[in-house]
Amino acid sequence: MFVTFSSLFSFSGIGTSRFNIPHMDKAVHFTFYGVMVVLGYLAIPKSREQGIGNSKLLWYIVLFAVLYGIIIEVLQHVATADRHGDLLDALANSTGAIVGMLAVRFLFFRVPSLK
C-alpha cells in the first residue's frame, strides 16, 4: 500500500530535500523493491510453503514484484497529471527485486555445514 500510494500520489506542493543527490530516486526504487521481496518471503507462513518449494515461491514473489513495478510505472504515465513513468525506474525496481531474491537465498537457503 505504501509503495502504491507514494508512487501515484502527487508531491508537487511538498518541499524537497536540501540535499541534491543525483539518481537518489533510483536508489529508493531499488531499496523498496529489494525489501518488498525479502518481506514478501518472510510473510508467507511455513505451513503454506509445504505445497510449493521455497525456491519456486521466491520466484513467484520476484515475478510479482517486477510486474507490480512495471504496472505502477505505466499507471504513473497514463493515470496521473504530474507524474511520469520512467523505464529506468522500472529497471531499478526489477534489479532491486532480483537482489532481494539473492539476499533471501543467501540468508535462508544455505545448507548448514557438517563440521
Structural account:
This protein is an all-alpha fold and 115 residues long. The protein has one domain. Helices cover 69% and strands 0% of the residues. The longest helix has 26 residues, at 54-79. It is elongated. The termini are far apart. The chain crosses the membrane at residues 27-45, 57-78, 90-108.
Summary keywords:
115 residues, mainly alpha, 69% helix, membrane
Briefly characterize the structure.
With 115 residues, the protein is mainly alpha-helical.
By DSSP, the count of extended strands is 0
Structural class, from helix and strand content?
mainly alpha
End-to-end Cα distance, whole Å, is: 45 Å
Rg over CA atoms: 17 Å
Q: Describe the main β-sheet briefly.
A: none
User: Mean pLDDT, nearest integer?
Assistant: 82
Shape: elongated
**Count of separate structural domains:** 1
Query: Counting H and I runs of at least 4 residues, what is the number of helices?
Result: 5
Unreliable parts: none
What portion of the residues fall into strands of 2 or more residues?
A: under 5%
- Taken in chain order, the helices and strands follow as HHHHH
Helix content: 55-70%
